[in-house]
Structure prediction request, 307 residues.
Amino acid sequence: MSRAKKRVFILLLLFMPLIFILLFEMVLQLFGYGGNLDLFVLKKTGQVEEYVLNENFTKRYFFHKGIKPPIPLSQTFPAKKESSTYRIFCLGESTTQGFPYTPNAAYPAMLKNILTGYFSDRKIQVINCGITAITSHSVLDMEREIIKKYQPDLLVIYTGHNEFYGVFGQASHLTFIKNRSLLQLFLKLQRTKLFLMMRDFVNLFFTHQFERDADGQHQPKTLMQIMAKDIGIDYGNDLYQKTTADYNKNLADMSRIAHKHHVDVILCSLVDNRLDHPPFGSKHCRNFAEKDTLQWHEYVNRALTCR
Prediction:
C-alpha cells in the first residue's frame, strides 16, 4: 500500500466514528426522538404564523421517572416582529407564572397593562415564561434560547426562590451534577437527539423512586415536597455557600449574555420572609448546652400557658 493510500485509510478510520455519530443523530432527528423540546414551537393558522410556548419543553429539566413535568402557561406571539413592537420576556418560577392565582394576577400581565397604557403607539408584547419548581440554572438555559431565536427587546428576570430545592438545586432530589459548568454543558448537549437518548437510557437505571415514601406506600405529594432532599440547611454552611455562589454566577451570566447581544435586562430583587419566621426554621446556636435547652423549654411552656 502506497503512503498516500495509507494516509487516506488512516483518516477514514479516524473519521468513521464521527461519521457514524452524525448519521445516527440525523436518523434520530428524522424520526423526532424525544419530541420537540424547544421553548416555543412555530404554528401556522391560515396566513398567520405564531410562536406558541411549548408545553413539552419542561422535559428538558424534569425527565426523572415518577416526576410529572410542570406545564407552562399558554403564551403566543407573532413570528414576524414589526418595527413598532416592543417584545418582553418574563423569566422565573411560580411567582412569575402567577401561582397559585390566575395568569392575569401575575406581574407580567400587570406589566403589559401598564406599558400599553403609557405607550399606546407601540405594540407591547409580554410573554410569561414562568415555570414552577425551576432554578436559575434553567432560567439561564431558557435565556440563551430566547436571545438566539425570538428577538427580545427586554428580559425581566425574577428568579431565586427555588435555588436549594428546585430542579438541579444543591438540596434537591432532582440533581445529579453538582458542578455548575458541567451542568450548563449538560443542558446544552441535550439539544442533540443522541445525547437525549443517552440521558434517557441512563435515567432507566439511576432514578429515584419519587412516588413512594419510606414505607413503600404511594403517597401523593406536591412537586416541591417530592423534590426536597436536605431539609434544614444551616445558614452559611458549605451547601449554602455553594448554592449562593452558583446563583450569583448564573445572574452574572444572564446579564453578560443579554448585554453582549444588546438586549436590555432587569434582574429583580426577591420578596422574602423574615428570618426565623415560617416557612424558615429556627435552630439553637452550636454551643447551646443541655441546661440552656431545659431553660428554653421552660420559657416556651410558660409562654404557652399565658396565652
